[in-house]
Specification:
By secondary structure, this protein is mainly beta. The protein is built from one helix and five strands. It has one domain.
């Protein structure tokens, strides 16, 4: 899965969450995404090579924590 913003590093993702940014996730071509629970995300977005991976906690469709 990807975040709706194309973060270059996991640190950028963590900082955005810390600063209160609303971040959602999506999975291209695979239908619906869970709104609550843990999922794995990766970045940066395709076609660039993925250089980071993270487990995140979703609540009501938004990322609230990087594990």
């Amino acid at each position: 899965m990807y975040t709706d913003f194309n973060f270059k590093t996991k640190k950028e993702l963590k900082e955005a969450i810390k600063n209160g940014m609303l971040i959602q996730v999506y999975q291209p071509g695979l239908g619906s995404v869970p709104t609550d629970g843990e999922v794995s995300v990766e970045g940066p977005h395709y076609p660039k090579a993925h250089t980071w991976y993270a487990r995140v906690l979703l609540q009501h469709g938004a990322v609230v924590k990087v594990m």
